[in-house]
Amino acid sequence: MSSPSTKTHTPPEQDQLDLVFAALANQTRRALLARLGEAPAKITDLATPYDMSLPGVSKHLRVLEKAGLVQRDVEGRVHRCSLDTAPLRKAERWLAHYRTFWNETLEALAKHVESSE
């Protein structure tokens, strides 16, 4: 007899947030996004500043694609990548909720400290 699963179902939007934050956790991927924020680029051009193989850069780009942060267009053998900011906006909205919480908490703490003096 198998035991029931204790894992809860994560809504798809939370799954995407997980992928976005995991993608952003790596310095190279953040740098690739910053470069793509300037203009779309071929993978070979994106790989130029890095001391890693083209497959290594492609692996980072696949993580960014899976998170929805990068779109890839293929024309023959040329792969051109561009930034998709929609997942970043969703992550920013999620962070904004907690920014409000922390601002209110810190304001309450400051008032408490001031009243205790």
In short:
The chain is mainly α and 117 residues long. It is built from 5 helices and 3 strands; from the N terminus they run ααβααββα.
CATH class: Mainly Alpha
Number of continuous helical runs: 5
In what range is the share of β-strand residues?
A: 5-15%
Q: Could you say which overall geometry the principal axes of the C-alpha atoms support? A: elongated
The separation of the N and C termini measures 63 Å
Number of beta-strand segments? 3
CATH architecture descriptor text: Orthogonal Bundle
Number of domains: 1
Largest sheet: number of strands, sense, barrel closure: 3 strands, antiparallel
**What is the mean predicted local confidence, pLDDT?**
87
In angstroms, what is the radius of gyration? 20 Å
Judged by helices, strands and strand pairing, the structural class is mainly alpha
Helix-strand string: HHEHHEEH
| CATH homologous superfamily title | Winged helix-like DNA-binding domain superfamily/Winged helix DNA-binding domain
Roughly how much helix do the residues carry, as a percent range?
A: 55-70%
Fold-level CATH name: Arc Repressor Mutant, subunit A
Strands ordered across the widest β-sheet: 1-3-2
